[in-house]
Design goal:
The structure holds 2 protein chains of 2 kinds. Chain A is α/β, with parallel strands linked by helices. Chain A has one domain (3-244): P-loop containing nucleotide triphosphate hydrolases (Rossmann fold), CATH 3.40.50. Chain A is 30% helix and 31% strand. Chain A has a 6-stranded mixed β-sheet. Chain B is of the alpha+beta class. Chain B has 2 domains: 7-46 and 241-375, no CATH class; 64-224, no CATH class. Classes of the chains: A alpha/beta, B alpha+beta. Chains A and B meet through α2 and α4 of A and α1, α9 and α13 of B.
Chain lengths: 245, 379
Amino acid sequence: MAVHTTAAVTGPVGGSGLLLEARHVSLRYREGSGVSHALHDVNLTLCGPGYVGIAGPSGSGKSSLLYVLAGLKRPSGGQVRALGLDLQRLTGSALCALRRQRFGFVFQQPFLIQFLTVAENVAVGSPRIDRSARQRAEALLVRLGLGRYTGRLPHELSGGQRQRVAAARALMNNPAIVFADEPTAALDHAAGAELMALLHEYRTARGALLAAVSHDEAVISGADAVVRMWDGHVRTVEPAQASGG
Amino acid sequence: MLGVLGWVLYCRRNRARIVALTFTIVLAVMEVSSVALLTGSMLGQIRLTTVTPFRDFTQVVASRVVVPTSIAAEVASRRQTRLMIPLIPEVIRVNTLVGPGTRNVFAVPAELMPWFLRRLGEQLQSGHLPRSGAAEIALPEQVMRSRRLRVGQWVGQQVQPTEWLPGRFRIVGVLSGRLACGVAPYEAMRAVTPLRDVPGTAAYGVFARPGQLHALDGYLDTLPLSKVRVYTHAAEAQQFRSEVRLLNWLIWSINLVTVGVLSLAMGLLNNLYYIQRMEEYGILSAMGYTHGLLVRRALVEVAAVTAVAWATGIGMTCALSAALERFVFGPHGIHLPQLDAHDVLATLPIPLCIGTFTVLTVLRRLIRLDPVAVVERRD
């Protein structure tokens, strides 16, 4: 079955700039002697600031879609545009520069560097690591209520605190787009809600786009638009304007 | 380069790892440099007696009993010859780091002794030079200290049967200099050798005019072997090199095995450390740090840790040998040589091999690093 969905998502804040676009994107993996399709002919347009949730069962391709949109994976076919740039045409280093300067990432695990302090871990998210980056990191941590922990090492923090530090690191470069892959999956409900509130506060204040993959309907329910994935296809886009094709 | 991602901070915050790596490298450097040092010392002792003296003069020794007068006259008349003096080469026992060794004692005419010593770069440190015809001897400081001898004491086979120096000589002076040789009057030495009743001279020291040594040696080498044997610096150095070649080969083989095994172990250890850090590299890669930057970071870390460990090993070997010289061997008059450029060079394969092996293994991982595999914990 080839579901061919063209989805246009416009956030409620009213921005009209094209942030992310996927055209006929497919992603295939070599699996043993066969080929596994993670994405089939995905078409998606995300305009303006807002919050886009990507939902679907395990193996539906939602994380793959996020990674392709974020330039972490090269699609096997089709075209991905982010912030006006065709990711396929970018060199490896240009793609890295885009990720480092304009994107923020929050993953299921915080992946903090164990020998760096909290402030240093956050400073690592800066496009340029210098003394001012560390000062900005400390200021950001204070704003996020983590000011007491700037000099602590990651293993001294709770899981929720570590994930908030990871979120602070993602916001360090003032990203235009924040990609979050199951950001609350390893957290309890309260910590998860706290983390999402933090991300929402940022994208509202900065007019950024938050694209989050989650199993958690509570997380998804707050989205301006939800892209539901099924078997590598965009099954539905709700509640924003969508046109099937 | 990267501030908080720099190698200094990494080393400061991961002391246990760095100490383990450094300790292993330091031990290896100390082992290899100590072997090089001891071997160098041993060979240096031999070279000092058999090769070094012939930098300053060439020795012509009779193949049978005495040097024919015609040959002696011919050599003396050469325009390259500055001076030819009768000489009896003997040796005296010395205690060294690697056991009993020898130092040269040259018996030369007393009136030429000051000039002879000046040419050899030796100075009288205390006492006086032996007098003509007297059974007196001036010995190098090293022999005096290692055997705890004093001016005024007697040395020689007649005093101590295990001694190599023939006869019986009273120590009247102490010499210092690069050659560490002693001197005795020619006539007195001749009187205690088996040739005392034979007319003629058994050996000569031939000194070349400035810049003429090569030409003189070339001529001396043409003298008939049936009449005289010629000891030139070039020939002695060549013979020394050929004799120690096998020993050098053996030592280098042992060193290479040590370096090889160590490199493998260190490479695996480093590899293990980097496997544990793949999450760190993966998240940095996902955030947009280029592969080039991450590879450079790993290379700098490996290079810095290895270089620091190597330098520490060299420094500790220097400190240890200096301390041993000062507090253990020195007081017994045994000279412990310090590390020289050759010894340091012998340890260079250690950081180079470890660095190369580690870089190759770690590099392979970093080049194939897939950030998505790391964040999805598939790596």
